[in-house]
Design brief:
Number of helices: 10
Number of domains: 2
Helix content: 25-40%
CATH class of the largest domain: Alpha Beta
Distance between the termini: 17 Å
CATH topology of the largest domain: Rossmann fold
CATH architecture of the largest domain: 3-Layer(aba) Sandwich
Order of helices and strands: EHEHEHEHHEEHHEHEHEEEHE
Radius of gyration: 20 Å
Strand order of the largest sheet: 3-2-1-4-5-12-9-6-7-8
Shape: globular
Largest sheet: 10 strands, mixed
Number of strands: 12
Low-confidence stretches: 252-259
Strand content: 15-25%
């Protein structure tokens, strides 16, 4: 697998720069095309003109404001990347933000989004964007933390392995990044008192699979009574990791997405980039 196209969600928030620069660094390293996705937030035009009515006039003004803001975001994106020889473009997409990102993200090999930021001036839909894209795009998603400094490289990577379908998909999606990494650690967690699931693939077998793909990984098996999210983040910090790879879990209901507990905790707490796939 190669990263021929990387997409990045762009908006007007302060952290947009951090994820843009990280996406650009990965794109340069892998000689990828970088596609900036800018949801305008504009709704489709009504079937008949209503601009003469007060409500219609207000709607037109709001749409113009949103479109101009989106155009500014796209301009800033191009300006940030202009000094570097990088293939890139920016796409303005009308409609609901999550669907706009999901729709275009499916035409990429990796999607870069930002962690939900409670301090940012965005709506509830934008706050749900990381989890919704992860659950619905069908692509590996790289989630950039909402605070702190994102390191230059992704040379040290921690992979959380539990033998699940989601972990397997995430591991395969992360393969281009793993091949470029200097240090990869595969960690398997088990709850105190629990037996190892009979159908779970041994992490040593996975390290052999990785080695045949050119990735040498250290294997760790840890037994703990603590929350798995806390253990993973503590281990990532202890190893100096710049990226954590794990499966993203969710259970679909009619109009609601309920995230698995560890997935939800990681999406909220992770202070380093997080790669997930579902």
């Amino acid at each position: 697998m190669t990263l021929s196209t990387i997409s990045v969600h762009l908006d007007h928030t302060e952290r947009c720069e951090a994820r843009t620069l990280l996406a650009a660094r990965i794109a340069r390293l892998h000689r990828s095309h970088l596609m900036g996705i800018v949801p305008t937030g504009c709704t489709p035009a009504p079937s008949r003109p209503c601009s003469e009515e007060p409500a219609g006039s207000a709607l037109v003004e709001a749409s113009l404001y949103l479109r101009r803001r989106a155009e500014t975001v796209a301009h800033v994106f191009r300006s940030r990347l202009r000094p570097t020889p990088l293939s890139c473009d920016a796409r303005l997409v009308d409609g609901e933000p999550v669907q706009a990102v999901v729709h275009l993200a499916r035409a990429s090999d990796l999607v870069v989004v930002g962690q939900a930021d409670e301090a940012a001036a965005v709506g509830s839909a934008e706050r749900r964007l990381p989890e919704e894209v992860m659950l619905n795009a069908g692509r590996p998603v790289l989630i950039v933390p909402s605070t702190g400094c994102v390191k230059e490289g992704l040379d040290r990577i921690l992979v959380a392995w539990d033998g699940s379908r989601e972990a397997s998909i995430s591991l395969r999606g992360a393969m281009p990044l793993l091949r470029k990494a200097a240090h990869v650690t595969l960690v398997s967690l088990l709850r105190d008192g629990d037996a190892n699931p009979a159908d779970a693939l041994n992490p040593v077998e996975m390290s052999g699979w990785l080695l045949r793909h050119g990735v040498q990984a250290n294997v760790e098996r840890l037994t703990t009574s603590l929350r798995f999210a806390d253990v993973l983040l503590d281990r990532a910090e202890a190893l100096g990791c710049e990226l954590l790879v794990m499966g993203g879990y969710g259970h679909a209901r009619v109009r609601e997405q309920l995230l698995g507990g560890v997935t939800r905790d990681m999406l909220m707490q992770a202070g380093i980039p997080l790669l997930m796939a579902h």
